[in-house]
Amino acid sequence: MKILSKEQIYAADKATEQAEHIPSFNLMERAGGYAYHYLHQRLQNQPVNIKIFCGTGNNGGDGLVIARNLIENGYSVVTYIVNYSESRSTDFLNALSVLKNSTKNWPQLIKSENDFPEIQPEDLIVDCIFGIGLNRPADSWVQKLFNHINESRAYVLAIDVPSGMAIDQLLKDEVVLKPTVVLTFQTPKLVFFLPQGGKHINSWEVLDIGLDRNYLNSVETKAQLIGKAEAKQMYKPRSKFSHKGTYGHSLIIAGSYGKMGAAILSGKAALSSGSGLVTAYTTRQGMPIMQSAAPEIMVVTDRHNGDFLEEIKFDLQPDVIGIGPGLGMAKTTQDALKNFLKQNESQLVLDADALNMLSENNDLLELLPQFSVLTPHPKELERLIGSWSDDFEKLKKAEAFSDKYKCILVLKDAHTIVVFEGKYYVNNTGNPGMATGGSGDVLTGIITGLIAQQYDPLSASIFGVYLHGRAGDIAINHTGYEGLTAGMIVEFLGQAYLDLFAQESEKK
Ligand SMILES: NC(=O)C1=CN([C@@H]2O[C@H](COP(=O)(O)OP(=O)(O)OC[C@H]3O[C@@H](n4cnc5c(N)ncnc54)[C@H](OP(=O)(O)O)[C@@H]3O)[C@@H](O)[C@H]2O)[C@@H](O)CC1
Ligand SMILES: [K+]
């Protein structure tokens, strides 16, 4: 699903008005009307007290349209206008005059803290104070109103975006109204998926307000949300006359004394993502551990006998190499990595200690083959690209790094974002149960295994991140968040593949 920027949303508005030859107020009527229907379907005329807080721009105008529809349909509504500014948008004034002409239930003005109404936990709050037009911190009395609503424990439906949250920047000392649900128009907003904004969002839904299809289909967005529909399109079906060679050979270079689990998890994940063959390259001591833990995985070892890899040399030609999990940061391993990178020609997926070694020796980055995949978690990312002031700057810096080294960056987080050639692919699977040791090693294995099967590195990264999260989502139905372990993510990978096509087969 495309994630439009603020400018693109305003442009989609204009394009719709032009294509349908309608004034902008019609679009507000439509958006507010659909939002009313959303509420009405769920409330079914229950006697709940609804308090609608409106700003003085178009988000507030939407609120007035929702209020009018609710009042006309017999709901108990009190509407407030939060007077954060003396200016009113034209369509806000249009919505106000239609409301005043059709009902005696007129809005009340809130000008300061003294005007705040009492809110009961049983009330339903509709937040239409600020939408995407917020461009600076709200006045302190308005922020107090956000907090007043947050403290009420009432159910809060935010229209378009939670008030106080800017969609294209992080505002200093941001105070945000924390909704129960965000009902967002037409397109999810990128900020919902970034840690600093996303933490205020419990759940969100997109409301299709019928913006112009031609515009939406043709607009090229920087960010895209990856869900099942997008993942399904990437899936490569298997052919009947295939054999294990068809699905490639993955080499996983991983493990050290006390960290063999990382190699096992990565190797198993590569296998379960479908790689035809998997070989692990690890320390000599690791051989019996690998062989007994994963009989399907072949093992090649360093000829030395130490706790850490001292040499990375092998006599086989894998299609792709995943390197890093559990390697440790021993000097001997760093030298081994350097020598390996100098002569390596295979496609690479780099994770964990391999990334830390790259951060310590920036020259090594020049040795990476084009389209290498790097899968840092936030701390590893910081070591690679330096610190950032906020999530938006983080993305910009990641983009510059990816451009400079022609690599694919997989920014692991609650919503992992794959960054490549100026585009952001935002993953929408996964859950907090996956914040567990070894989860990242599994992802490395999955992406490696997909590249072995001839997925191009970008698709392998996007699809791999999706599958990883989906496997975790299916697994928690059995384990709960706390009980989920990385090994289970591997076990549920097959289910994640099946789930891609689950709906079709159920319908048959
Ligand atoms: N296509 C769609 O999706 C459709 C969208 N629609 C709706 O329009 C909404 C966007 O409306 P909007 O542009 O009028 O902005 P909104 O958020 O109401 O803010 C109002 C004004 O406040 C101002 N301002 C900013 N920060 C401030 C601050 N801290 N303290 C005080 N003032 C501040 C700023 O004006 P400024 O002062 O900068 O001139 C801003 O313009 C959108 O979210 C959706 O609900 C639908 O109606 C139709 C289809
Ligand atoms: K809002």
UniProtKB/TrEMBL annotation:
Among InterPro entries, the record links this protein to: Carbohydrate_kinase_pred_CS (IPR017953), CARKD (IPR000631), Nnr (IPR030677), Ribokinase-like (IPR029056), YjeF_N_dom (IPR004443), YjeF_N_dom_sf (IPR036652)
Q: Which GO terms describe its molecular function?
A: ADP-dependent NAD(P)H-hydrate dehydratase activity; ATP binding; kinase activity; metal ion binding; NAD(P)HX epimerase activity
Record's cofactor remark: Binds 1 potassium ion per subunit.
For this protein, what is the EC number? 4.2.1.136, 5.1.99.6
The segment(s) forming the YjeF C-terminal domain are 227-500
Identify the residues that the record assigns to the YjeF N-terminal domain, covering every copy: 9-217
What does the entry give for GO biological process?
Answer: metabolite repair; nicotinamide nucleotide metabolic process
Which terms are listed as keywords in the entry?
ATP-binding, Isomerase, Kinase, Lyase, Metal-binding, Multifunctional enzyme, NAD, NADP, Nucleotide-binding, Potassium, Transferase
List residues binding (6S)-NADPHX: 58-62, 131-137, 160, 262, 326, 377, 441
Where, in this chain's numbering, is K(+) bound? N59, D127, S163
Which sites bind AMP?
K412, D413, A414, H415, T416, G440
Report the coiled-coil segments.
Answer: none
> Which co-factor is required?
K(+); Mg(2+)
Reaction catalysis annotation? (6R)-NADHX = (6S)-NADHX; (6S)-NADPHX + ADP = AMP + phosphate + NADPH + H(+); (6S)-NADHX + ADP = AMP + phosphate + NADH + H(+); (6R)-NADPHX = (6S)-NADPHX
Under the heading PANTHER family, the entry gives: ATP-DEPENDENT (S)-NAD(P)H-HYDRATE DEHYDRATASE (PTHR12592:SF0), ATP-DEPENDENT (S)-NAD(P)H-HYDRATE DEHYDRATASE FAMILY MEMBER (PTHR12592)
Q: Which family does it belong to?
A: In the C-terminal section; belongs to the NnrD/CARKD family.
Quaternary assembly: Homotetramer.
Known role: Catalyzes the dehydration of the S-form of NAD(P)HX at the expense of ADP, which is converted to AMP. Together with NAD(P)HX epimerase, which catalyzes the epimerization of the S- and R-forms, the enzyme allows the repair of both epimers of NAD(P)HX, a damaged form of NAD(P)H that is a result of enzymatic or heat-dependent hydration.
Protein name, UniProt field: Bifunctional NAD(P)H-hydrate repair enzyme
List the source organism: Leeuwenhoekiella aequorea
The record lists the lineage as: Bacteria, Pseudomonadati, Bacteroidota, Flavobacteriia, Flavobacteriales
What gene is it encoded by? nnrE
